[in-house]
Amino acid sequence: MRVALITETFLPNVNGVVTTLCRLLEHLRDHGHEALLVAPDGSVGSYAGAEVIPLRGVPLPAYPELRLTPPQLGLTAQLRRFRPDLVHLAGTMALGVAGRHAARRLGVPLVGAYHTDFPAYTAHYGLGFLRDLAYRYLRWVHNSCALTLCPSLATIADLRSHGFRRLRLWGRGVDTERFHPRHSSEAWRASVGAQPGERVLLYVGRLAPEKRIDLLADTLPTLPNTRLVLVGDGPARPALEQRLRGLPAHFTGYLRGDALAAAYASADMFVFPSDTETFGQVIQEAMASGLPVVAARAGGAIDLVRDGTTGALFRPGSAPELREQTLRLVRAPAQGAAMGAAGRAAAERRSWGRVMDELLGHYETTLRRQRVPHRLARAS
Q1: C-alpha span between 70 and 218 (Å, rounded)
Q2: Are 295 and 313 in contact (CB under 8 A)?
Q3: 108: alpha, beta or left, given left = phi > 0 and alpha = psi -120 to 50?
Q4: CA 315/CA 318 separation, integer angstroms
Q5: Beta strand extents in the chain (DSSP E only)
Q6: 214: enclosing H helix or E strand
Q7: Torsional sign, CA 178, 183, 188, 193
Q8: What's the whole-model pTM score?
Q9: Considering Cα of 209, then 210, then 214, then 220, what sign does the dihedral take?
Q10: pLDDT per residue as tens digits for the range 112-156
Q11: Could you give the C-alpha distances from 26 to 20, 216, 356, in angstroms and in order?
Q12: How far apart are CA 299 and CA 375, in angstroms?
């Protein structure tokens, strides 16, 4: 099978889309398939044996590390030279037009993956008036796909209510060797300023308005004997540093590899107030690391967190409920440890291999369905 993937984010960026793409490219290579990746310039030249074709992009004002990559001349010709069996749109926005056009010109099926809730983002950047337009555009792109892969049941329900068709559930895996409780480190806790007996609350992700980290800033001053560690970076960091000045809070910037694994395993609890997540890969990584999770009852968190068993859910946007659920676990470390153990057990059932095999099954089904009309046309 020859698969052409189109994305608007890739290495060296750190996010759930990039993690998923890396795992997919590795899986395709390991199973004898060939892949080509179209990504913004500034990415690596190849990954897991797949060539990476760079496209010119413009840094987004709110996210300089991400690039808006408009359709560009020559993309269809480059894909034609690769001779793909199908084209996979990996959560693109601007490049959705180019992928749709290229797949039609090449006569191959288009598979879309809905990674990011762009319509929900509009409200956090003062662009709520564009929400319906965003849905209309994305519906136009995704309804041209043979199928659209959604990471959570909440995403399927939302898209279906807005007229999206041919939706399928496709979750995400987690590396349970990389993210494991055994990576806990007292040296790491000391490096972030944790005092003896202090409970460390961990957040991992972009520091941006749609992540609702303002709720953590509201909550931290009311929590006794706790320290907040924020792993990541983004446009909201300067304002957050100002708000949290003088409080037990520590910013690490982006972490990768062993450093990220140690951060998860060395904390006591994972807090994730975002209500715009289609999945929430960092939730799975925290669970694999043995942490109880406090998350907003929205999006992918509903599928991942079993309220009262692996963590606690709170009403989206409610700082009082976030405080209540967090304080309850701060005061009951034994309960938190039991939730963390249950989360670890749940994560062990979500291997990347099984998730990627499921994706290859979707590919094969799509290709079989395409061949049937072609055979019928020849027979007539």
Answers
A1: 38
A2: yes
A3: beta
A4: 6
A5: 2-6, 34-40, 46-47, 50-55, 58-59, 67-68, 86-90, 110-113, 147-150, 167-169, 199-204, 226-231, 249-253, 269-272, 293-296, 311-314
A6: helix 214-219
A7: positive
A8: 0.88
A9: negative
A10: 999 989 899 888 888 899 999 999 999 999 999 999 999 999 999
A11: 10, 36, 10
A12: 41
| Assigned token pair, 207 | 């520091």
DSSP character for 296? E
- Catalogue all structural domains in the chain, each as residue range(s) with its CATH number: 2-173+351-379 (3.40.50.2000), 181-347 (3.40.50.2000)
User: What are 369's two structure tokens?
Assistant: 């369905």
Read off the pLDDT of residues 192-209 as tens digits, 9 standing for 90 and up: 999 999 999 999 999 999
The Cα–Cα gap between 334 and 377 comes to 65
Rg over alpha carbons for the chain, rounded to the nearest Å, is 21
Angle at 74 between CA 84 and CA 5, to 5 degrees: 35
Give how far Cα 350 sits from Cα of 109, 263, 355, Å. 28, 21, 7
